Amino acid sequence: MGQRLKILNLYAGIGGNRKLWGDEHEITAVEFDTRVAAVYADLFPNDTVVVADAHQYLLEHFEEFDFIWSSPPCPSHSRLRKGLSMATGSKAIYPDMKLYEEILLLQGYFKGKWVVENVVPYYEYLIQPTLLLGRHPYWMNFTVEPKDFTSDGIIKNGVTQTLEAKYDYDLSNYNLPDKRKALRNAVNPEMGLHILRHAV
To answer: Listing from the earlier edge strand, what are the strands of the sheet with 6-10?
Structure first.
């Protein structure tokens, strides 16, 4: 896949975006949830796994890497969460602005290649994404060839077994409180590979 990179994988989850990257790169994954981090460490034993606040880790360590992937929390931006809130009368919440803080930090300070992934928001974008792949907007500082991932949204709504089969995961032996959520939060591995190939 080209040169060996020092990669920072933020909000790593169970490693959907990283699944097809292989082991030729030096990868540091940051995940706050210890149970999820343990699954990631088991699945990718050659990676360095850090249990920490990814947002703070980025600020303190971004200069140490060649390529950064960030997938900050998306529920507060999503149309689904807002729709459910309006329908059920549950409390409104502030959109988590870490998304835009990280985009601006990487745009302004980082000399390597970077990508930030999230969901299509219920509001107009505050910073226009570089590319839309499947159901995900991406902000990045390099060019990625468009590719059809339209079936990704259908798969994301599936049951745990469907998601496991699609992404080739078996979480049956892991003690996770919500396996379906962990799988739904995982970026399509083919999408993750497609993007990395354009970064190297």
So the answer is: 48-51, 26-31, 6-10, 67-70, 113-117, 136-140, 131-133
Map residue 50 onto helix, strand or coil: strand
Quote the CA–CA distance of 182 and 176 in Å, as a whole number.
8
Cα–Cα distances in angstroms (integers) from residue 65 to residues 5, 25, 76, 144, in the given order: 8, 11, 28, 20
Segment 109-147, tens digit of pLDDT: 999 999 999 999 989 999 999 999 888 899 999 999 998
Residue type, 27: I
Which domains can be identified in the chain, with CATH numbers?
Answer: 6-150+187-199 (3.40.50.150)
Beta strands in 32-152 (DSSP E): 48-51, 67-70, 113-117, 131-133, 136-140
Tens digits of per-residue pLDDT, 85-100?
767 777 888 889 999 9
Structure confidence by residue, pLDDT tens digits, 15-48: 999 999 999 999 999 999 999 999 999 999 999 9
Element (H, E) at 193: helix 189-199
Contacts of 137 (CB under 8 A, 6+ apart): 117, 118, 119, 120, 125, 129, 131
For the entire predicted model, the pTM comes to 0.91
As a three-state string, the secondary structure of 158-190 is CCHHHHHHHHCCCCCCCCCCCHHHHHHCCCCHH
Instruction: In whole angstroms, give the CA distance from residue 12 to residue 43.
Output: 12
